Amino acid sequence: MNIAILGFGTVGSGVYEVLEMNRSKLAGSAGEELKVKYVLDLREFPGHPVMEILTHDFNDILNDPEVDIIAEVMGGENPAYEFSKKALLAGKAVCTSNKELVSKHGAELLKIAREHNTNYFFEASVGGGIPIIRPLNRCLTADDILEICSIINGTTNYILSRMRDDGMDFDEALKEAQDNGFAERNPAADIEGLDAVRKTAILASLVNQTQVECDDIYTEGITKITAADIAYAGRLKAKIKLVSLIRRADGRTWAFVAPMMLRKDCQLYHVDGVFNAVMVKGNAVGELVFIGSGAGKLPTASAVAADIVEAAKHRHINVVTKWEDEVLALADTNDLEYNYFVRVPAEQAEKAKGQLLIDEIADAGIPAEFAFVTKRMNFGEFKRRSEGLDTISVIRADF
Ligand code: HSE
Question: Is the entire prediction scored with pTM above 0.70?
Answer without folding.
Answer: yes
